[in-house]
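> example.struct
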């Protein structure tokens, strides 16, 4: 995300997250900050604790939470122009909150990159943000292959770790029909 945004000319970046308690999001934020600093960009983490609504395992975010997060972002001076949002569900709330506050979103303005490539969350956004595709189909296929291999090789004591490379789907591609 940092390399993508920096490559598009953004020197001031921010990682936005509505769920500080979710440790993978915290790790992602730290990684983004590290990458931004290596590139020579300014970077901020703007996050907050998730409201625990009805004790649900799956996060539920209220629009007011996105508004509060946007207030924190807009209080930064100078304001970041390249934004990485933790996941698509959050982007579906944060981008409209930014636009309600008069922030222009799109190439040459404030740009957003989201994560997971979950089209149902992003389909109503205009413009569509760039996306980091975590490639869930590939993850699933490799998991099945790994499970089949493990069943055939039960006596092998070593753990085998597989890494699936993500890919960026640029803004220009996601703005039009898919």
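> example.seq
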């Amino acid at each position: 995300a940092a390399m993508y945004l920096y490559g598009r000319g953004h020197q001031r970046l921010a990682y936005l997250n509505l769920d500080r308690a979710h440790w993978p999001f915290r790790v992602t934020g730290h990684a983004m900050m590290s990458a931004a600093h290596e590139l020579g960009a300014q970077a901020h983490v703007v996050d907050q604790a998730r409201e625990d609504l009805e004790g649900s395992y799956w996060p539920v975010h209220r629009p007011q939470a996105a508004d509060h997060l946007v207030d924190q972002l807009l209080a930064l001076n100078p304001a970041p122009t390249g934004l990485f949002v933790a996941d698509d569900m959050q982007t579906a709330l944060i981008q409209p909150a930014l636009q309600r506050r008069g922030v222009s979103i799109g190439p040459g303005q404030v740009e957003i990159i989201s994560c997971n490539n979950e089209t149902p969350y992003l389909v109503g956004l205009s413009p569509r943000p760039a996306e980091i595709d975590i490639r869930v189909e590939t993850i699933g296929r490799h998991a099945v292959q790994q499970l089949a291999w493990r069943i055939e090789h039960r006596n092998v004591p070593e753990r085998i770790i597989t890494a699936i490379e993500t890919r960026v789907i640029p803004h220009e591609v996601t703005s039009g029909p898919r």
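> remarks
The mean pLDDT is 90.
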